[in-house]
Amino acid sequence: MTTSEQQKLDLRYGPGRLPAPETWSPVIDHLLDHRSVRRYRPDPVSDDQLTAIIAAAQSAATSSNLHAWSVVAVRDPATRAALSECAGNQAHVRDAPLQLVWLADLARLEHVARLAERPCAALDYMEMFVIAVVDAALAAQNAIAAAQSLGLSGCYIGGMRNQPEKVAELLGLPPKVFAVFGMTIGIEDDSAGAAAIKPRLPQSAVLHHDALSAAEEPGRGRRRLQPHDGRLL
Ligand SMILES: Cc1cc2nc3c(=O)[nH]c(=O)nc-3n(C[C@H](O)[C@H](O)[C@H](O)COP(=O)(O)O)c2cc1C
After folding, report:
1. FRET pair for 190, CA 20 to 30 Å: which of 22, 43, 79, 169?
2. 228 alpha carbon to ligand 1 midpoint, in Å?
3. What is the reported pLDDT for 231?
4. Residue 172 contacts by C-beta under 8 Å, 6 or more apart in sequence?
5. Which of 38, 9, 8, 28 is nearest to 155 (CA)?
6. Atom of ligand 1 nearest to the CA of 88
7. Which among 133, 155, 178 is the best mutation to test ligand 1's pocket, defined by most ligand atoms within 8 Å of the CB?
8. Structural domain includes residue 153
9. pLDDT tens digits for 103-153?
10. pLDDT classification of 230: cutoffs 50, 70, 90
11. What's the 127 CA to ligand 1 centre distance in angstroms?
C-alpha cells in the first residue's frame, strides 16, 4: 500500500474511511482515477486512438459470443450539434471532438440469420434486448477506461435516449438498433479547473456477502424471501 493508493481511496470514500487493501494493481489504480469530464479542448481524437479504443471495447465479454452491439463515432460538428440538441442541449456533446454513440444492435444478428437461412424469432424477445444493452454497456466501459489510459477523458451521455427516434434518424439506425447512450471523448479543458473525483457510497451499502442484507441499510427497508416462490418482497 502506498500513500497514493490511500489518497485515491480517501477521494472515493472520505478521509480514512477505507484503509487501502494490501492487494492493488495498475488497472485498479487507473480505474480509481475515473472522472466524468464535461469541458473539452478542440484537439481531435486521432484515428489511431479510436482504433485502440475500439479494440479495447471489442475485448469485453459478450453474452453468448453474440456481439450484439455497434458504435457510431461522430466527429462531424453539425451532427454533434444536432445530437447535443437531442440530449437536452448538453454543451459537452457539441464541444467534445468525438461522440461515441453505443448501440444495442440486433439488426446485424437478424441479417446474419437471414443470410444463413436460420430462424431469428428469438431476436424479438425482451431478453435479447437486455443482452444487447448489456453488451453495449460492457464494451463502452472498456472504451472509456481505454481512452482515459491514453490521456483522453470522457463522459457517458444517457441524454441520448431523450429523443431516440431523432437520434436514430440522425445516425441512420435501422429497426432493431437502439442508441443506449452517447459518450463524449476528448482532451479535458482544465483551464477553469479539472473535473473532480466524485465520492462513492460506502462499500457496506453495495457489497453483500452470500445474500442481500438490507435490514441495517437506511432507505432500503426490510426484505424477506418468501419460501414458497422465492420472490423478494
Ligand atoms: C449510463 C450513464 C448515463 C449518463 N448520462 C449523462 C449525461 O447525459 N450527461 C452527463 O453530463 N453525465 C452523464 N453521466 C455521467 C454521470 O453523471 C456520472 O458518471 C456520475 O455523476 C458520477 O460521476 P463520475 O463519473 O465523475 O464519477 C452518465 C453516466 C452513465 C453511467
Report:
1. 79
2. 40
3. 40
4. none
5. 38
6. 8
7. 155
8. yes
9. 999 999 999 999 999 999 999 999 999 999 999 999 999 999 999 999 999
10. very low
11. 25
pLDDT at residue number 213: 87
118 CA → ligand 1 middle, Å = 39
Ligand 1 interacting residues, C-beta cut-off 6 A: 34-36, 38, 87, 90, 155-159, 181, 198
183 Cα–ligand 1 center, Å: 9
Q: In the chain, what are the helix, strand and coil shares in percent, each to the nearest 5? A: 45, 15, 40
Taking the CA of residue 38 as reference, the ligand 1 atom at the shortest distance is 11
CATH code for position 54: 3.40.109.10
- Mean pLDDT throughout 168-183? 98
Residue 215 maps to a domain: no
Residue of the CA atom closest to atom 29 of ligand 1: 156
Q: Is residue 151 part of a domain?
A: yes
Q: Give the Å distance between the CA of 37 and the centre of ligand 1.
A: 9
Question: How far from 110 is each of 77, 103, 104, 121, CA to CA, in Å?
Answer: 32, 15, 13, 9
Minimum CA distance residue for ligand 1 atom 1: 158
Q: Number of folded domains in the chain?
A: 1
User: What average pLDDT score do residues 40-59 get?
Assistant: 98
Task: Report residue 217's pLDDT band, with 50, 70 and 90 as the boundaries.
Answer: low
Sheet (strand 153-157) strand order: 69-74, 98-105, 177-186, 153-157
- Backbone phi, psi, residue 157, to 5°: -130, 85
Range of the domain at 58: 35-186
